[in-house]
Design brief:
With about 425 residues, this protein is an alpha/beta fold. Helix content is about 40%, strand content about 20%. It contains 14 helices and 16 strands.
């Protein structure tokens, strides 16, 4: 416990120091990380091979799923995206210090709402070692400190990646220590969840059980999604080629991703339903018409499907069984599309496109710390802006509330140009 408290205290101090940094130093830090990743690629791959070898035994013993194993692999494509993601963040606008509102309450009494960092982030994730790169980079650009806890299945890769990151940061003059730290044990998770004195936000990235456990065992605000039950509704007027391409991509491009489609809803009057289902089977998708439950996240090339009577039934099904993640309609009827996107209660609502687009990198956020189905300050793929909050600055010249309470002065609340 004392060891973790020390880490959390160091993170808190680091968060106050990084909040003072200008954009140039933060971008120098990110460029240093990208260059270090390029130089250390083979070392990272070797560490990942060791994890993959050990993870095969975990799959055999039923300790982790095959989809978790698939997320663990770090190949050339993922490494390329990882490095590019870091570089892309340098080109994004600094989210800290942005004036969001400026209002003159009275003469010479001006209120300003300004974006600021959240502080210390606690990140708990399974598999996917590239998460460390994404979150560390976003934390740096948004001036937050971060404590990372990865799964045991990716321990070697995680250690190596963090070693590379902190080695790169140490070369940047003026960059504070302990901005990015990592812990490894189950006990550390328990301590993190109790550490509301120092940690401002917990972000879990993993399966439903992990997220549920975290939400039930901490007083710290939690940002994330419990599961990814994504839907595609093929409307009566859908184009068969678009429907086939989109559904196939949403299921097979990366089946274990949280934004992969899990349920296909088909309008009963869609005349090419048989053709659509046949095309999906040709893509090695296993179709299930009567699943045990409509809220199963398969994480594999398995797709539940159902015929519905109407658009309203499709919307009702999604709002009943969906996870509020991402859902799409395939149609040539723009009014139906508009109704679908207005009435489906999800973080992402799409028209004629794959649910796999629900991603911070694809949204131009550079990367993401995760996808949130919360209805708080951040929803959907959470990038830089989702890692900031705001503060109110009030500047005056000796004004006191008593003058306004007695009617000696009056507010005029005049909004000023930002």
């Amino acid at each position: 416990m004392e060891k973790f408290i020390k880490i959390a205290q160091e993170a808190k101090r680091a968060s106050l120091k990084i909040a003072e940094l200008d954009t140039e130093i933060k971008n120098q830090a990110l460029n240093s990380i990208a260059e270090a990743f390029e130089a250390a690629k083979q070392e990272i791959f070797e560490a990942n091979k060791q994890d993959l070898s050990e993870a095969e035994k975990l799959v055999e013993n039923g300790e982790i799923t095959k989809s978790t194993f698939n997320r663990l692999k770090l190949d050339e494509n993922k490494m390329r995206d990882m490095i590019q993601g870091v570089r892309d963040i340098t080109g994004l606008e600094d989210p800290v210090g942005k004036v969001l509102l400026k209002r003159e309450l009275d003469e010479n009494l001006v209120l300003t709402k300004v974006s600021c960092p959240i502080g210390v982030l606690g990140i708990i994730f399974e598999a996917r070692p590239d998460v460390i790169s994404q979150i560390s980079s976003l934390a740096i650009k948004s001036s937050n400190a971060v404590i990372l806890k990865g799964g045991k299945e990716s321990k070697n890769t995680n250690k190596k990646i963090l070693e590379v990151i902190n080695g790169a940061l140490a070369k940047v003059e003026g960059f504070p220590e302990n901005v990015v730290q990592q812990v490894f044990s189950r006990d550390d998770v328990a301590e993190m969840l109790k550490c509301d004195e120092y940690i401002n936000l917990i972000i879990p990235r993993g399966g439903n059980n992990l997220v549920k456990f975290i939400k039930e065992n901490t007083k710290i605000p939690v940002l994330g999604h419990a599961n990814g039950i994504c839907h595609i509704f093929v409307d009566e007027s859908a184009d068969i080629d678009i429907a086939s391409r989109v559904v196939t991509d949403a299921k097979t491009q990366y089946p274990s991703a949280c934004n992969a489609v899990e349920t296909l809803l088909i309008h009963k009057d869609f005349k090419k339903a048989s053709e659509l289902l046949a095309s999906l089977q040709l893509s090695e998708i296993k179709l299930i018409q009567n699943p045990e439950s409509w809220d199963i996240e398969y994480g594999d090339k398995i797709l539940a499907y159902k015929f519905v009577e109407s658009l309203d039934e499709a919307i009702n099904h999604i709002n009943t069984y969906g996870s509020g993640h991402t859902d799409s309609i395939i149609t040539t009827d723009s009014s139906n599309a508009e109704k679908f996107m207005n009435n489906v209660d999800s973080a992402g609502v799409y028209f004629n496109v794959s649910t796999r687009f629900a991603d911070g990198f694809r949204y131009g956020f550079g990367a993401e710390v995760g996808i949130s189905t919360n209805k708080t300050h951040a929803r959907g793929p959470v990038g830089l802006e989702g890692l900031t909050i705001y503060k109110y600055k009030l500047v005056g010249n000796g004004q006191i509330v008593d003058d306004y309470a007695k009617g000696l002065k009056k507010f005029h609340h005049k909004d000023l140009t930002i």
